[in-house]
Amino acid sequence: METALIDGYLLHLPLRTMKKKAKRIFEIDLLRGLLIIMMVVDHLAYDFGQLAPSFFLVSDAPQALRDLIEWCYNYWYEAWRINFRYAVIALFFILSGLSTYLSRNSIKRGMVVLGFGAIISIFSYFLSITLKTDLFIFFGIILCLGLAMITYSLFRTLIIKMTKSKTFWLWTSLFLAILFTGVGYWMRLEVATVPVDAQNWWFIINGRMTPTINSYRIIQGVFTPIVYGLDVKLDIVLGRLWYGVDWAGLFPYLGYTFFGGFLGELLYAQKKSLIFKRENVVWHPVEKVFRPLTFIGSKTIYIYLLHQVVLAALTALIFILLGIPLK
């Protein structure tokens, strides 16, 4: 008890206890930090190579900037970059599943992410209408991520409560991970726009064989969004149809999330780093060297939600300050 003296009398006050901070796991934050930096760089290339030329007369830009725009444009369509991007996205979902397992309020976090995803979709719709260009996002990575986090959390809670066994859930999560991932690839094979052979089979992994549907059409010179029925929207959500500038069907990404949860249960049952066995590693030389990356990794969700808005605004500001006119 805390004791205070007021007018000669002792007053007993209840102790105020601080909430215990969640322990960070070094290697997870490090990998997340690396992934989010790669995503930021990738999106910066998109802003210069794809987004800016849609709004500005790049022919009036200085030669150095035109060279940068050309490099970013070519980079965006490189085959290695497309394949590497989907490997990074898969890893991001795996780490999100692992982090969902480690989180104390996983459903709440999933709802927050889902809410941000909904806001992004609504904002992209009105931005597309205003600017008369395709910036539509109906079911993007953020919405998919939020829904996957919630689904994993509900499955875990339900099955553990029903079976009273975390071991049963461990292997069930692996089974579901394989099932959901398999369903995702089966869907992509089913709707593939070209025959799959030994030379192009990896297109199934990056989704390039998934049919793309138009988000708008021009009717008598007027930019008009296409409104699809519930069946088409369901196909977009499940992963059978590609729609808009940012799309991530629930399958196979739900499977990646469950696989991340399985790895969390298997490797991090004690919720401690596999590299640093001690409780406090703040002053460890290795941790100090990588601290900028681990700090970024600890703020991944906030960076992911906000970075593209900041990057797009900075890109536009550069063009405006250089006096490059709008189209």
In short:
The chain has 327 residues and is mainly α. It contains 12 helices and 6 strands.
Structure description:
With 327 residues, the protein is mainly alpha-helical. The protein has two domains: 24-77 and 281-327, no CATH class; 106-265, no CATH class. The protein contains twelve helices and six strands. It has helices at residues 26-55, 63-76, 79-102, 106-131, 141-163, 166-191, 203-206, 230-238, 250-267, 285-289, 291-298, 300-321, and strands spanning 2-6, 9-13, 212-213, 216-219, 222-225, 242-243. The strands form three sheets. A two-stranded antiparallel ribbon has the order 1-2. It has a two-stranded parallel sheet with strand order 3-6. Helix 5 runs antiparallel to helix 6 (166-191). It is globular. The model is unreliable at 1-19 (pLDDT under 50).
Separation, N- and C-terminal Cα atoms:
69 Å
Secondary structural class: mainly alpha
Helix content: 55-70%
Shape: globular
Average predicted confidence as pLDDT? 88
Topology as a string of helices (H) and strands (E): EEHHHHHHHEEEHEHHHH
Main sheet strand line-up: 1-2
Kindly provide the radius of gyration, computed on alpha-carbon positions and rounded to a whole number of angstroms. Answer: 24 Å
Q: Give the strand content.
A: 5-15%
State the major sheet. 2 strands, antiparallel
Number of structural domains: 2
Total count of strands:
6
- As residue ranges, the low-confidence spans are 1-19
Number of helices: 12
